[in-house]
Amino acid sequence: MDPNYPNILVADSISEEGIERLQKDANLDVLTNITKDELLEIIDRYDALVVRSRTKVTKDIINRGKRLKVIGRAGVGVDNIDVETATAKGIIVINAPEGNTISAAEHTIAMLLSLARKIPLANSSVKKGEWKKSDFIGIEVREKVIGIIGFGRIGSYVAKMAHGLGMNVIAYDPYVVPANIEKTGGLKVDFDTVLKDSDFITVHVPLNKKTTGLIGENEFRKMKKGVRIINCARGGIIDETALYKAIKNGIVAGAALDVFVNEPPKNNPLLDLDEVVVTPHLAASTIEAQKNVAIIIANQVLAALKNEPVMNAVNMPVIPKDAIVVIRPYIPLSEKLGKIASQLVNGTILRVKMIYKGDIAGYNTEYITKSALVGIFSNILNEHVNLINAPVIANNRGINISEEKSKDIEDLTNSITIEVETDSMKKVLIGTIFGKSEERIIGIDGFKINVIPSKYMLISNHTDRPSIVGKIGKLLGDEDINIAAMELGRKKPRGEAIMVLSVDSPVPDHILEEIRKIEGIHDAILVSI
Ligand code: NAD
């Protein structure tokens, strides 16, 4: 062992290229059959541990890893790593989400062409000894419209390839500026235009509350007759029952699915349809993707061990010691303000400005600014957004980030303001810390309030008048939704006002609709953090 090199253990099999890269700059052990007990025995020798999904990096392993500084996951999901314990110990956890982008995009194009030319059906027919040429007349994709929903890593690469096939690319992604779509030869459009105008629709969004059932009965109804649908993202983004109906009633001519709500799919009627092409969650399964992932993880682990910046750290880096007392409580507060602001705005985010007032302005506030970006992006991106990659993401998306500082104080020792500006509106939230760590939201859009951030908050704008609060309270009460706290802000009696209700459970969409119908209410949005 060379004492000048870090000690790295690779505990699961990764591509040879990754091993070779690590060997160049580390004392490397590759023990891919190691048991948990054996790992517990030897983990204290290593500075970094590299795993895939076999090895469970549990709390006891992390606690025994006295020298451990980095854990690398050669892949995307980090469910097998106790990230919380690692973070508490200041151990960086790194993954490689971008390693499979090309493979997933190419699989999408393979699915598109399979649908257009009925290749899977024709293949089984010929193998059965048939020769039914006229049954498999296909369509050309050139000059057809492809609608891409979600223009991140994979969606944007699909756009480039589809453009190369001579297709007309339109894309919907509210979080991407038009220029980024135009760069690939595509055009940014709204959601309904994708539904109405596309011959092919492919989804590349993460699966979350907003995107579950993103394409359901209503959406199929708006589509062009004969549209073809592709899902190589996550099961559940397209409502499977609605898709079945849309194929049966002739709106959808074909669908290609790599992912399902339940995997493997059981008793799924879609599998009985000739119009449906399926693969078993294969989009990322290529030799190159595995090689890329191994090389990315090797490079990132080595960089992290040298304290160089890494792109894919899943958890938070350590804050400089001198600033820790002042800065630390503002980091989670800022993330919450970012999360709230991103849910209150519509349109494409163009600018994020952070304003620091009071003592805090004297410190390096970059962590707090980055934390606000983490909050903004965490609801809209598939990858783990963290303090390290959030500014890079903002930059790639053409979002202007700025900080303004003033040591002058108004009523408080410190306050942080986040201004999020989109192409159609601006939201301003102010927060502070009372005592050592009590978080407060003290302003929204110029209204003074005093709110403890809570998991679910119903935020409404209305014209101040009697009975509004009562009507909202009744609607929530009838639905058995408990109000934990209420705060009203207004600039003058009977003028414009804001209300923040902290509720114990989410408010369903139909109740939000009812609330929006109350006279005097301009808007009501349920925010969750
Ligand atoms: P990404 O985070 O780079 O991009 C996601 C994009 O979706 C972002 O640009 C975001 O702005 C956009 N978005 C978020 N919410 C949206 C909404 N409501 N409407 C429109 N756009 C929205 O992610 P990625 O790496 O491109 O991955 C895309 C999808 O592919 C994810 O669901 C991922 O899990 C999946 N994936 C599947 C496989 C597979 O094996 N089938 C492999 C890799 C990735």
Automatic annotation (TrEMBL):
<dbReference type="GO" id="GO:0006564">
    <property type="term" value="P:L-serine biosynthetic process"/>
</dbReference>
<keyword id="KW-0560">Oxidoreductase</keyword>
<protein>
    <recommendedName>
        <fullName>D-3-phosphoglycerate dehydrogenase</fullName>
        <ecNumber>1.1.1.95</ecNumber>
    </recommendedName>
</protein>
<dbReference type="Pfam" id="PF01842">
    <property type="entry name" value="ACT"/>
</dbReference>
<dbReference type="InterPro" id="IPR050857">
    <property type="entry name" value="D-2-hydroxyacid_DH"/>
</dbReference>
<dbReference type="InterPro" id="IPR006140">
    <property type="entry name" value="D-isomer_DH_NAD-bd"/>
</dbReference>
<dbReference type="Pfam" id="PF19304">
    <property type="entry name" value="PGDH_inter"/>
</dbReference>
<dbReference type="InterPro" id="IPR045865">
    <property type="entry name" value="ACT-like_dom_sf"/>
</dbReference>
<keyword id="KW-0028">Amino-acid biosynthesis</keyword>
<dbReference type="InterPro" id="IPR006236">
    <property type="entry name" value="PGDH"/>
</dbReference>
<dbReference type="InterPro" id="IPR045626">
    <property type="entry name" value="PGDH_ASB_dom"/>
</dbReference>
<dbReference type="GO" id="GO:0051287">
    <property type="term" value="F:NAD binding"/>
</dbReference>
<dbReference type="Pfam" id="PF00389">
    <property type="entry name" value="2-Hacid_dh"/>
</dbReference>
<dbReference type="InterPro" id="IPR029752">
    <property type="entry name" value="D-isomer_DH_CS1"/>
</dbReference>
<dbReference type="InterPro" id="IPR029753">
    <property type="entry name" value="D-isomer_DH_CS"/>
</dbReference>
<feature type="domain" description="ACT">
    <location>
        <begin position="457"/>
        <end position="529"/>
    </location>
</feature>
<keyword id="KW-0718">Serine biosynthesis</keyword>
<comment type="similarity">
    <text>Belongs to the D-isomer specific 2-hydroxyacid dehydrogenase family.</text>
</comment>
<keyword id="KW-0520">NAD</keyword>
<dbReference type="InterPro" id="IPR002912">
    <property type="entry name" value="ACT_dom"/>
</dbReference>
<dbReference type="InterPro" id="IPR036291">
    <property type="entry name" value="NAD(P)-bd_dom_sf"/>
</dbReference>
<dbReference type="Pfam" id="PF02826">
    <property type="entry name" value="2-Hacid_dh_C"/>
</dbReference>
<comment type="pathway">
    <text>Amino-acid biosynthesis; L-serine biosynthesis; L-serine from 3-phospho-D-glycerate: step 1/3.</text>
</comment>
<dbReference type="GO" id="GO:0004617">
    <property type="term" value="F:phosphoglycerate dehydrogenase activity"/>
</dbReference>
<dbReference type="InterPro" id="IPR029009">
    <property type="entry name" value="ASB_dom_sf"/>
</dbReference>
<dbReference type="InterPro" id="IPR006139">
    <property type="entry name" value="D-isomer_2_OHA_DH_cat_dom"/>
</dbReference>
